[in-house]
Design brief:
Elements lengths: L2 H27 L2 H16 L5 H5 L8 E4 L5 H17 L1 H12 L5 H37 L8 E4 H18 L2 H10 L5 H6 L1 H15 L5 H35 L45
Parallel strand pairs: 1-2
Helix pairs in contact: 1-4, 1-5, 2-4, 2-6, 6-7, 8-11, 10-11
């Protein structure tokens, strides 16, 4: 396609993606209270302050709690807009991801499309698994963090800060679960071997542990291990897959090409001997005589 047609198609794809995000954002605006409750419920169930004096009296002595607050006149509106837009981008992701794929796919070869399907089909469940894992770990993280509150001091937790914390945890856990998939894709493309990945296991365990300690907002080892252990398991799973794939490649190369595959060409140059110079060549067979007619011979 000419460049103008490519730009026109890109414009149409972007317009469809933005339209889907806007429509879902408008619909999500009517349910933004439910969306906020969904994200904040695990934290409030674990560290939220009781709403009545009777419930407050039942709390164990010395236990800290947090109260959700919103500061500012425009804060509720900006918070509703932020939550609705976040929900619009997340819920409309199948539409804009399809538009992106429809724009890129025609320029890919068949094996590249196969890799792309495998990457998306495996990466999306891994990301959601990491996000769900973070959602389940949040109550424990909140209890540890709220425990640092000084005695007889009220903890007022801004709602926007809480949503930022939840979003950060979900993204960090979701993206960290993509590490094994990246290693597998590097192995499939021949960039990284399984033996080399296995040789890195000590450094990888240390690096994953340090990453988990930095990524998790709490300082307790339980939350850190909750993120590190699943990534360890996924990493060694990627190593096993890579070793098996390398062995399969070696066996296939030893068997030679399949019936429907072309064999490799031997492009090694061969010695053809001494080449006779032009001046030493004899006349052509069809040239019966060397006499010239009007100054030209038969070849001319």
């Amino acid at each position: 396609m000419p460049l103008a047609d490519h730009l026109r198609e890109l414009r149409n794809r972007l317009a469809k993606a933005m339209l889907a995000i806007v429509v879902v954002t408008v619909v999500a605006a009517f349910y933004y209270n439910d969306i906020i409750n969904f994200f904040t419920k695990p934290v409030l169930d674990s560290v939220g302050c009781p709403s009545t004096f009777a419930e407050l009296a039942k709390m164990p002595k010395g236990q800290q709690c947090a109260q959700i607050t919103i500061n500012g006149l425009l804060a509720p509106f900006t918070l509703a807009l932020k939550v609705s837009l976040m929900a619009g981008v997340a819920i409309a992701s199948p539409v804009w991801l399809y538009q992106l794929w429809a724009f890129v796919a025609p320029g890919l070869h068949r094996h590249e499309k196969k890799y792309a399907y495998a990457f998306v089909g495996t990466g999306v469940p891994l990301f959601f698994a990491g996000g769900l894992f973070a959602y389940k770990v949040l109550p424990t993280t909140a209890k540890v963090l709220i425990g640092f509150t000084p005695k007889d001091v009220n903890n007022l937790l801004p709602l926007d800060d809480l949503l930022d914390l939840v979003t950060r945890m979900v993204l960090v856990f979701g993206l960290s679960f993509e590490l094994p998939l990246l290693l597998v894709m590097l192995n499939l493309t021949g960039i990284l071997t399984g033996r080399r990945m296995l040789g890195w296991w000590r450094a990888m365990i240390m690096g994953i542990t340090v990453f988990a300690a930095i990524a998790t907002p709490s300082t307790d080892p339980l939350t850190m291990l909750a993120l590190a252990v699943p990534i360890w398991v996924l990493y060694f799973g990627a190593v096993v897959f890579s070793l098996v794939n390398d062995r399969r490649k070696r066996l296939r190369e030893a068997e030679g090409p399949a019936d429907d595959e072309a064999s490799d060409l031997d492009l090694t140059p061969e010695d053809i001997g001494e080449v006779e110079s032009v001046s030493s060549r004899r006349g052509l067979p069809e040239q019966s005589s060397t006499d010239r007619v009007n100054g030209y011979d038969d070849v001319t």
